[in-house]
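Researcher: Structure prediction, please.
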Amino acid sequence: MKPSRPQDLSPEAQRQVPPAPSQVQALPPPMPQHIPPQTPQNQNAALPAQTPTYAPSQASPPKPTPTKSTLKALPTVRDHTTDQLGPGGDEYLPREVDEQGEKKVQPNGQLNGGREYRCRTFLVPLRGDKLFMLATECARVLGYRDSYLLFNKNRSLYKIIANQQEKDDLVAQEILPFSYRSRQIAIVTARSMFRQFGSRVIVNGRRVRDDYWETKARKQGFTEADLAGEKRPGASKAREAAAEASQSSGMFGGPHGEIVYSNTPAQFGGAPPTQLVQPDYNDTRSRDYAGILKTGPRQEITGPAYQDRTGPSPISEIHAQAHHAAEFNRSV
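Model: Predicted structure follows.
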């Protein structure tokens, strides 16, 4: 007898057929319905706009932009030099020049008009008549910590490392001490220093008068009355005016009495006693010492001189004094 094939049941019949016991045990327990029911949505449907539940933070007011930019005492490095060396290989080629500044310095770095450098200048062998300066001395005069910061903050200056022959020559000129022969020495041309710093490297320098960039200094508002190194026009005059004002206020700034306004002067009594009239004191010194003659004869010291008669005490007396002291201590 052939086994009968199971008949295909309709979906309705399958719902009515109870599951087998093994199938009932294999089913996992129903999970709690924490997820809300989801309805099918059309993929092309636009999502509703979601409004934020938090209150938007109030935007800070825009900061006012300064209308006037801060003026610089010196032009930036990239304004007047390139990154290419000149024919001598000791300084960068200038990109911009000042006609008035060119009249103050020669191509070899020599100053015109009786000006003098604040740093020592010297000649270097095999470099012609061009003037050079020690980088360490320039850094000290200009207020830099060392020559590294001098070249790092001023890219227009070209750093030259002196060779042994040049260092020996500087020692012979007494520019360097003998102990510096084995150290690394950096030098820089005097002309590039004047182009970069102007009146700051001039003895008794003044703005505009001793600046290389005279045209730019005048446009920034500087005058010859400003001292070298001033970063704001008229700063020296402002300091002098403030000093005079403080001095004048100190003259009239003494302590004053309290001012009382009243129409009844009788309540203040009489005038205070003046301190200019001193009280009269009776001097009796002339009466007490009137009989002493200052011009009389002096009394001479007469008699034998003082003789020291101290001597050592006998032993018996010392023992007696010690015995009395011991007895007194017992009684106390």
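Model: Confidence is low (pLDDT under 50) at residues 69-77.
Researcher: Thanks, that helps.
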